[in-house]
Amino acid sequence: MLKYKVRNILIGFVVLLLIVAVGTLGYESIEKAGFLNSLFMTIITISTVGYEEVFPLSEAGKYFTIFLILTGTGTLAYIGTQVFDLIIAGEIGRTFGRRRMDKKISKLNDHYIICGYGRMGKIIASQLKEKGIPFVVIEKDEKYINEFDEKDYYYIIGDATKEDTLVKANILYAKGIISVVESDAENVYITLTAKGFNQDIKVFTKAMDDEASSKMFWAGADNVISPFTTGALQIANAIVKPNVTEFLELALGKNDYNIEVEELAICQNSKLKGKTILESNLRKFGIIVIAIKKSDGSFIYSPSAEEVLNDNDVLICLGRRDDFDELKKYLRS
């Protein structure tokens, strides 16, 4: 939105310069005036400052002056309204937009809070948005505001280590918090603060070294990712186990085939509850069940076709994105 308003203002100035050029050349041609007098006459005509005519006008010159007044003042009015809209109306719009967003954030439930919009935060936000998972981004730097608005993200400009900022993000009703700010110390502090507000909240964070990782687990983090360790292992596995790495990347959606791994929860009213994998007809949708996480936290890998699907089971499935969409439509019908 901002870039379009700036573009309109620039277009207005370009048109104004063209009118000034046409006016100057017109007076030179019609009234045989010099360049400076013609330019001066054009400027006072367009700006309507009311100075006397620099030179007597012929009938053709008067018609030309009327043309300049109409086009020039119209262009100036257009530029003025665009500037007003950009500065004044834009500020008012942002104020009311901020209030509307704060109201929507206060009504969120079972959402995620992303603390930090660096390289990791951007990828996480993009993935959650793609999956339709509600989230709020907390970021200190105001330079991302336009990007947040363009991508339709809920966001709070503030410090995630501050309690009032987390309260604004409705942490009491959040499902999880993802702390990926640059400092390990801040990630530990955010973890402690989040757990202090909500003991049931899932905390995902990053650590730059092993010592910080242990502190984050001690602080209550449920999942700690070390980017350097993870990256090094991926490179090593790509060398040692290239085919396994290729398959995992395929399963995680890093491919052109739209194949990915998804979780499918069996809830109390699910059509699949009480059925075996064979009876569920998942294969009819092109879905392969590669594991089941039972309600007690244990895993069944490569389950048999006779395995019964019970309440609170989570199926780990492999399939194409379109197939998962069809299955979800069937389960909602």
From TrEMBL:
One molecular function GO term is: monoatomic cation transmembrane transporter activity
Sorted alphabetically, the Gene Ontology BP terms of this entry are:
potassium ion transport
**Membrane-protein topology:** Multi-pass membrane protein
Sorted UniProt keywords:
Ion channel, Ion transport, Membrane, Transmembrane, Transmembrane helix, Transport
Predominant location of this chain?
Answer: membrane
The UniProt transmembrane annotation reads 6-27, 34-51, 63-90
| Name the record gives this protein | Potassium channel protein
Q: What is the organism of origin for this protein?
A: Deferribacter desulfuricans (strain DSM 14783 / JCM 11476 / NBRC 101012 / SSM1)
